[in-house]
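sorry to bug you again but im stuck and you know this stuff better than me. what follows is a protein written twice so to speak, once as letters and once as structure tokens for the fold. mainly i need to know what kind of three dimensional shape the backbone takes. anything you notice is useful, everything is just below:
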Amino acid sequence: MSTTALPTVVFDFAGVVFRWQPLALLQRVIPQHAVDEASARLWAQQIFQGYEGDWAEFDRGTVQPADLVQRIARRTGLALADAQAVVDAVPLDFAPIAGTVALIEQLHAAGHPLFFLSNMPAPYADHLEAAYPFLQRFTDGIYSGRVQQIKPERAMFDLAAQRFGRSPGELLFFDDVQANVDAARAAGWQARWFQHPEGAAAVLRALGLLG
């Protein structure tokens, strides 16, 4: 396969490049409420709303952290201090997934441009950029909170293709949320559901991006 025929890789962040374990986070941050996995699951549904509602608007950048804390407290009955603790804890809980970071390093070393497309509010994006130098391996990327668009909306994928300077069919996207994979495919992208780094590596090898 010639270099010009190779797709350009785009990574989601939470759940793909960075570990995201909301149930464990809630059990650690509000243990008086999230006393076990079952109760943590119920609280996660109320707080994160399936990443819709208030949390989606936080990701979009149209709700600021202080307002989000107020909204969570009103909706769930959590004390303001507990809601604030959860919102503050989320970016600190993101830890790089070693296998995915290894893929990023291999792709970069092979000279392949890399991009990211993440539903991430701006304050969390600021934290990641300051904390993890390996993100400099990416040529460019889009955080939802900085462009006021979110996945799985079509506008997010159209904006990304334009900004990355690629036609949709040239972009190979890894995301751990099936709805986002489906939306990317509907926008003309190549997209794969990410379950673990080993699966992504197999796709990359099959396409000739890794040896």
